[in-house]
Amino acid sequence: MTLTDSRIADASAKAATLIEALPWLNRFHGQTVVIKYGGHAMADEALRLAFAQDLVFLRYAGLRPVVVHGGGPQINTMLARLGVESSFTAGLRVTTPEAMEVVRMVLSGTVNKDIVGLINRHGPFAVGMSGEDAGTLTAVRKIAVVDGEPADIGLVGEIVATDPGAIEALLADGRIPVVSSVAAGRDGEIYNVNADTAAAALAVALDAAKLVMLTDVAGLYRDWPSSAEVISELTAAELTGLLPGLAAGMIPKMEACLTAVQGGVPQAHVLDGRLSHAVLLEIFTDSGIGTMVLPGESQ
Predict the structure, then answer these.
(1) Under a CB-based contact definition with an 8 Å cutoff, are residues 268 and 296 in contact?
(2) pLDDT, mean of residues 196-216
(3) Whole-model pTM?
(4) Which of 2, 90, 229, 288 is the most exposed place for a label (fewest CB within 10 A)?
């Protein structure tokens, strides 16, 4: 193959990719997509840069992306650096007032501004905010259950109300809202809330076309760990039946998908955030990746 032939082949492949994206560009133009960002995609530098590029591509393609993030590893690092003790009960961080100060500082400060900065390398699009801003997320104290008994886990919140007005105003102005998973309480307290749950609640409130959850696995596995087969698509009813048998780490993510589709979001996806440009591969290719949850009864 000559150099000219090679260039033509490369150009043709790029054209084919763009043509494949065309129906999806048409379908999702002007639609809101809520993306929960976390895990390895947040820690690896190359993946962080690719994620920022994905968001800006969505913005230029006419979609309205909203990012919701946590930051567990970053919180752990800062707590250790400051000598603040931290423990977990029923899979949730016991959040003392002292620990909550660190959580709030890390999520709404360091992590949030870092994501905003990455996106804004490509233009003045991203605006950072927390769930407590403008009453976006309202929470009450969550009580964990251990061996059938209630357990106090401190300032961990359960979302009871959402007000998407501030996010909608940013979207109308062409911005990319980046929201940290911190919520205000009606009692004046500030709560640490699960980012998966926060993303689902906002997807419902914003009438999003999609909820996308970036994880550290390829999707929801069928019969894990005996099988490595990823379930490409399932209904809300089918997921409800599978939930009790899922691994602990997957339960909050799949519960978030279930909450979203039961609340009116047409599609919820669990994607492998370790794959570069995972968001674009899901939204703009015919095959898609990961696991998609749809509303409805099992077939």
Answers:
(1) no
(2) 96
(3) 0.91
(4) 2
